[in-house]
Structures are given as C-alpha cells and as structure tokens.
Amino acid sequence: MPSGPEGLVDHPAFRIELERARSLLFAHPGRWRILYHYDGDGIASASCAVRALQRLGFPAQATALLAVERPRMVELLAATSTPVMVVDTGASWLDLFAAHPHPVIVLDHHQYPGAPSPPPLPDTVAFVDPLDWGVDGMNEMCASTLTWLFTVFLDARNWDNAPYGVSGAIADRQHVGGFKGLNARLVEEARERMFLTKAVGPPLLGGSLEESIALSVDPYLTGLSGRAVESRAFLTALGLDPQRPPNGLEPPEMRRLVEAVSNRMVRQGVRPEFVAALHEDGLFVPSLGLRAEELANLQNATGRIGAPGVGVALALGDPAALAQARDAERTWRQGVLNGLERIEKGGVYSLRALQWFESPDGSLAGTQAGLAMNYLLDSRRPVFVFTSARDGLKVSARGTTWLVGQGLDLATVCRTAAGRVGGEGGGHRVASGATIPPERREEFLTIADDLVGHQLPALATEVAS
After folding, report:
1. C-beta separation of 181 from 135 below 8 A
2. Rounded Cα gap, residues 322 and 7, in angstroms
C-alpha cells in the first residue's frame, strides 16, 4: 500500500520545513498571491498550488515572473496586501520576503547563497528547498514536484496533482535517463495510485509521422527538423507512410523508426545519454488522455509565448484552455525550430571555455540554448545566449549533466560574473541565468569564460589546442 509523504526522506529538515510552511498556510486562511516562474516547471508548480488552495477554499491570484528580476519582485511585493506563495523562484531574494509585512511561503529548488544552510528568517517566512535535505534540486526534485509534495502534506487528496508535478519535471529535463531520487519515489507512488501509467515508446507529436519528424525539436535532427521534403524521404526509405498517424505504428515499425533516428543522432555527434533517451518509455496521464511529455510541452509553451495563465487554466479544467495551449505549442515549437535552424546554419561564437550566441526570441532563448547544447553544439563547453529586454540584457546559460560531472557550476558562474558587472544571476549547476547591463556584455563574457575555464581546466585546454 502506498505510504504517506512524511516517510519519503529521512533528513529532519524535510519535515521541519514542510510542516512550517503548512502551519503558516493554515494560520492564514483567505486570499493568497502565488508568484511563479513563467517556464514549464513554474507553471506546473503554480498549477499544483492553485488547485490545492481551491480545494481548501482559499482564493488565489497567480502572477508570473519572467526571469531573474529582483526589481519586479520588489514591485509585486509592494503591491500585495495578502500572504504570498513563491514557487520555482525566490531563493536568492529571502531578504525581500523577510521584510514583507504579510506571510510568505517560498518553494524553490534553486541554489541560494549559503546552501544548504538558509539564513535566519522571521516566523512570517517559510522557506522550503530540497537542497536542505540532501536532495539535489538539479536532477532529483524540481519546483513542481516540490509543490506537489507540499500539497500532499496539506491533504492526501492532492496526490491527484501528479500530472502537473511530473510535467514540470519533464519541462526541467529531470526525466532524462529516468526519474531519480525523490522524483522517482513520487512517480512510483503516483503510479501505485493510478494517477500515472506507463506510455510505451518515445512521444511522437503531430498529426502525421512527417510532422513528427519535420517539426521535431527534441530531438533536433540536422537535415530533417524544419524540412518537410527531407523528412518525407527519410520515412519513405524506412517503408513508412509519411502521412500515417504516429500513434498507429506497430512495435516492429516503431523499433525501426527509433533505430534510424538514433543512428542519425550518433552521426550528428549527440552525447550517448540523449540518444538513449529516445529508447525510454514515458508516462501517460489517464485523467487528461495525454502523455506527460505532451502536457509538459503545452504548459511550457503557454509561458514561452507570453500566456502562462493559460497553462495554469489548463490545470484548472478551463474548457477553452486546451485549444489555446495547443495553439501556443504550435507557435512555441515553430519559434524554437527557427532558432535551432539559425544555429545549425550560422553557428555560434566561441571562446576558450564557452560558446555563445544572440537570440531575438526573448522567451524562447533558454529553450533554444538547452536544445542546441544537447543536439547541435560542442558538448565540451557550455553555451550562453543573450537577449535584450527593457530592464537589461538577459543571459541564459546551459550545460549538460556530463559537464556538471566534470566540474561545471553555471549557478556560480552566472551569479559571480553578473555580480561583477552590476547585475545578478543564479540557478542550477546545469542551467542558470542572469540580467546584466547591456554595455557590459564583453566584460561579463570574459569573466564567465575565465570562471568556466577554472571549473573545466582539462576540457578548456583540450578545446584550445
């Protein structure tokens, strides 16, 4: 029989932090404002939180944040006269929450200065971060699985937040190589409770096999993605009808297609772990009739095109939200595809220890960088992408878990380099971001290149030679 959430982690901070947050919430019934990051993980986290608050009868107002935006957080807190729940962001702004005159609950999985020892906080602030329990927020628990877990602490009926807990983890790429650690235990329990079931084979999204290949961004297939004629010829050579629905393949046909795509990825120079991901089974959400990967794409897309509220509405059962999310996903996918095609054709700039490019697509730049890192670029060096915004130059940095294993820590790089040029940054070792003054980009790059070079000395020397 599945167990309750209290026994999932042995570390004492696990129960202490979650119980403190639960007590603070129950002590303040009424309206709460939820502040969340606009990406797939943040939207899924907000979905879990709003659903749980509605179940309690607490009204909720959800507001998205776009990036590392301390001034925006200051502005929102000043305009909020109710308790606040902050999900998938906020770990670097604990000082702001300590000064807020109303209760604040922070549910975040990002690194913060001094981790895993949070600073002293007033009784009005509850800070929950899996780093404090010895759980890696980069690959063992994301914000949505953390928020899902917190909602289960509130009420066991919230195990039905499983679809959104998992979709956020997929959006944060924590499913690659299989779910790990606390994520895996949560997924296992959700399957025991039948909120999730096994989905055989890789997700093939699109109305036809031709669309699945020609519009594929994950994986991005050089010479096929973005190219309908070439994709049609590729499928025909495999003896597959390009106009056939992708969910109609027989097992031998699926194996033939997966093997052919895998071989292309190997020739493309894709790292083995991303090739292996193509052979992994996924998860299906019976209550929605969707694969979890598709739900992740739908919610992530709504945020990336500037409509994160649609992603949250989807989780609340809004009948119009699904169609809007599908439209958003098509727009998002085409934007990502255009960016990856630009990189495939035009390349990127290279320094000793890192590579970088510019993107005109502000909300898509991080996704473009992450997928380019996985499928197109030199896997020995992380990539940084720059986009212009009203409050400064946005930076998204992406690596791989393999690079992290070699010593890469992009959270430290972004926080340090941005701080030295009058900006701010942070995130995870494998994926991080910053906001800097536009005129100081070259200085930022020089500092970041030096920092990455010191973290990856052997690889930097290999690249330079």
Report:
1. yes
2. 36
Is 326 exposed, middle or buried (CB count within 10 Å of its CB: 0-12, 13-18, 19+)? middle
**Distance from C-alpha of 100 to C-alpha of 118, rounded to nearest angstrom:** 18
Pairing of strands 32-37, 197-199: unpaired
CA distances 199 to 204, 279, 294, Å, are: 12, 12, 12
CA distances from 85 to 26, 30, 34, 116, 169 (A): 13, 13, 5, 21, 20
137-181 pLDDT, tens digit per residue, is: 999 999 999 999 999 999 999 999 999 999 999 999 999 889 999
Task: Please report, for the chain, the start and end positions of each structural domain, with discontinuous segments joined by +.
Answer: 5-175, 206-281, 347-464
**pTM, whole model, 2 decimals?**
0.89
- Tell me if the bond preceding 116 is cis, omega within 30° of 0: yes
Query: 5-175 is classed in which CATH architecture?
Result: Alpha-Beta Complex (3.90)
**CATH code assigned to 347-464:** 3.10.310.40
Phi, psi of 425 (to 5 degrees): -160, 175
pLDDT tens, 82-124? 999 999 999 888 999 999 999 999 999 998 878 788 889 999 9
Instruction: Kindly state the tokens that stand for 252.
Output: 């031998």
